[in-house]
Predict the 3D structure of the following.
Amino acid sequence: MDYILDTLAKVGFDWKMGLFQFINFLVVFWILKRFAFKPIMAVVDERQKKEKTSIENFQKAKTELQMAEQKAQGIIDEAKVDANKRIEASHNAAKEQGEQLKAKAKAEIDALIVQAKKNIAIDKKEMQESLRKETVELVVRAVEKVIGDKIDGASDTAYIKEILASLK
Amino acid sequence: MIFQVAAEQPFIQPEIVFSVGNIPVTNAMIMSAFVMLIFLFVSVGILRKAKIVPGTFQTIIEILFTAILNFLETLTGSKVLAKNIFPLVGTLFIYIGISNIIGLIPGISAITYNDVALFRTPTNDFNTTFSIALAMIVLTHVASMKEFGLFGHLGKFFKFKEVIIGFKEGVGAGFLAIIDFLIGLLDIISELAKVISLSLRLFGNMYAGEVLAAILLGAFAMIVPAPWFAMNLLTGLLQALVFGSLTAAYYALAVDRGEETNA
């Protein structure tokens, strides 16, 4: 033991100085632990925690945004399908209505044609009647001229009726 | 003039500046106290008020601390263990690092009191390196006792149980257990050697550096000492790293459950 202490003494070892240095180191250790490592690492940990929370929040927001976008896209797709359906339905309805209008118009036109034909027939009949009348009168006048004698009203009428009867 | 008069070669023992009662106060002790005061001023005055948005100085300190913590994590392979030993090994890194390089401040060694240099690099005093190394090795044993219990810890060195188990298994296994027992006894010597190697490595490097600096300053007044000082700066920081790393490794080995954990 003495040999060890003598050897240590040769390199300047003295237990009092050693003890002082040891205590000094302990004081430095306490100072650094209490006033340097603890507050600095607490701040670093807090910052890391905040960063972690921020990253998590960002990821959460990103996921939510993606979900919202998907949802919005779904709504848009649904709306498109609905709109297409509505457009198709409107198109079909318009087509049907057009067909109906067309049919109605055709029926009206047909009715007009029938009415026109009827009117024409009536007019034709009236014209034929009028023509016959005028023809008879012309014939009477021609006969008068030919026979040179005027026939009176009663005989004239009787004559006309006779002619008309023969024409029928 | 390139060549200069020979500078005084440093003594291996620290010089006594004055005494308080029967306690000698050496220049290394004064420098140690001065370093402690620097730490006190910086820690209490600046770092205690650490802010979430750091300033330049706080950023540098944060980078340093985080680097030490990451280094310890790599060294020990455990985040929890690295966090546990960070204050202690961090103090070693910083205290020894600053102590090693503070003596390089120009003119600091020229300040004298009673014709004795007032300041001497603390790690250039064997008392400093030996006391810190001894404390660190004692601490690793305390940590081991906390982890394995008193008998579990002593069982690492006195392997009686293994010898009994070995002989129960067979004569061959028993003899192997005896060899293991002797290796366990040798480990006690190796624990003492750790203290000597840790303290002498640091002291030797720093003392040799100072002797060489004195010789170079004595021989050459200009140009040559500058690169030497730069190298001394690097050596000082490197020695702090070596001391701290070895302590961390010893600590990690002391609390390592090895096969138990791997099993």
